[in-house]
Each structure stands twice: as C-alpha cells, then as structure tokens.
Amino acid sequence: MAERLMGKEVAAAIKEELSSKVAALKDKNITPKLGIVRVGARPDDLFYEGGAKKTCESIGMDFEVFEYPEDITQEAFESAVKDVNARKDVNGILMFSPLPKHLKEPEIRELISTEKDVDCLTVGSQAKVFIGDKTGFAPCTPAAVMDILHHFNIPVAGKKAVVLGRSLVVGKPLAMLLLGENATVTICHSRTENLPEVCKDADILIAAVGRAKMVKANFVKPGQTVIDVGINEDPENPGKYCGDVDYNEVAEIVEKITPVPAGVGSVTTSVLCKQTIRACEMQNGL
Fold first, then answer.
1. What element of type H or E holds 241?
2. What confidence tens digit (pLDDT) does each residue in 144-161 have?
3. Which positions bind NADP(+) (predicted)?
4. Multiple choice CATH, 28-114, 3.30.390.10, 3.40.190.10, 3.40.50.10860, 3.100.10.10
5. CA end-to-end span of the chain
6. Is the full-model pTM beyond 0.70?
7. Binding site, annotated residues for NADP(+)
8. Residue numbering of the annotated binding site
9. 92-95, strands of its sheet edge to edge
10. Superfamily of domain 140-265, CATH level 4
11. What is the per-residue pLDDT across 132-144, written as a single tens digit (0 to 9) for each?
C-alpha cells in the first residue's frame, strides 16, 4: 500500500514558518493583510473563506472581507475592486471566481495589481509564472502541489512529470512550475492518444482533470508518486467526495499518493497566506 502524503502535515510546517515571518514583520510595525473579495454567498466560497480566515488567525495575520450583493452592477463592482486594490494596508487580494454572469470578469480581474494578485487572476501574473519571474504568484493549488513535493522530499529535477489537465487554474501553471525545477513535463488532456500508457510512463503523475476516479490501475505503475488535485462528488457514495484518482485501485500499486479529501486542498489556504506575506515583504522593500 502506498505512503499517504497528508496535506495537514505540509500545512502545519508552512504555518510554523509563516508564524515566525509574521512575528518578524510585526517587530517592524508591519502586519500582513489579506483582502477577500466576494460577490454573493455561494457555499463553496464561504467554505474556502472560512478556511482562509482560520489560517490567517492561526499565524497572526490580518484579513478583511469585502462582501458585495449578487446583483451589484459592473460599474459599482469595478469601483469597489479599485478601492480595495488601492488600500495600502491590503497586501494580497483573493477574489472569488466565477463572478455572477452579468459581470465582465476578465475586465474586473485586470483591476487587481500583479503585486497584490496572490492567486494569479490577472494576465500579468500568469505571464510572470510562465516566464519564471519569481515576483509573480502562481495559483494557490499548483503552488500547493509543489509544496507537497518539496515537503516529502520527492525529487523533481530530471524526472518525468505528467500533468493530466490543461486548465489555466492548475494544469498549465503547474507544468511551468515543474519545468522551472527541471522536470521533463508532459501535459495530457481529453485528446491525448494512449492516455493510460502516457500516464504510466511518469515518475510523478498529477491528476487535475475534474473527472471522478478517472485514473485507474492501468494508468499507473510501481514506484510512482501520484498527486490528486481533483475534488468531485463521489458517484458511488452520495454526499461524499473523491478525487480524479480511483484511490483504492491506485494506492495498491504506486509508492506515494495524496488522498482526497485531506490532500492538496488542505494546503491551499496556507499557500495563500504565504504568498500574501511575500507580497507584503516586497511592497515594503524587504
């Protein structure tokens, strides 16, 4: 049976380091602050917001929630986002997405400055990730995947990494982060031929496709590390969640695997805070 790579362990290590950084900043009369921008009250947004607030509190960081009604106009919301972005005490901005359909989200995203864009919503931030500019912030989920690999001392340089999924939120930026650490990266998707064979050839297989239990035993081989980014309703267990990997099948074969839940998702709010603290340091010339 594979070693379970638990996200809670990674998050705890990150939070311990961040607590020290926040204390050091407070000694200089600087307190990092995350601004959370939310339109409406979707349950998944509120769930993630609760986790982010809890993480901020646990490390001594500040946060402020900017909540707006679901029927806010484009003009009013643009003005609100500009105001939050202009706040000198707000170092990082998390804006929940997707926004209500009547709002032009691409235009609104670009109102956030790259210096405060701690979840990679803007084209400028995406460009920085793709060219390897360390002043840019990757989306929190792919950054969390990298933190898991680092924490458990899983070698990346020179290894074959297969990323299953090509979204701008996970697949593409994760491929760039892996490439930046000298992995040999293959991005797979729905049109990839011989998909199980391509995945089986990986040293590190990362599933981020959004299809419940898609990765079966025929996708993997002994010795692999499998990172499951997916979070889906479990078709076999109503009310429960599962990943993109069929855990029971795959864990019998591979060397290491992240569970769902309690894997990658457990690390993302710690990454969000880490990137906000780094933004704060850069904004203060530290």
1. strand 241-242
2. 999 999 999 999 999 999
3. 165-167, 231
4. 3.40.50.10860
5. 45
6. yes
7. 165-167, 231
8. 165-167, 231
9. 62-68, 33-39, 92-95
10. NAD(P)-binding Rossmann-like Domain (3.40.50.720)
11. 999 999 999 999 9
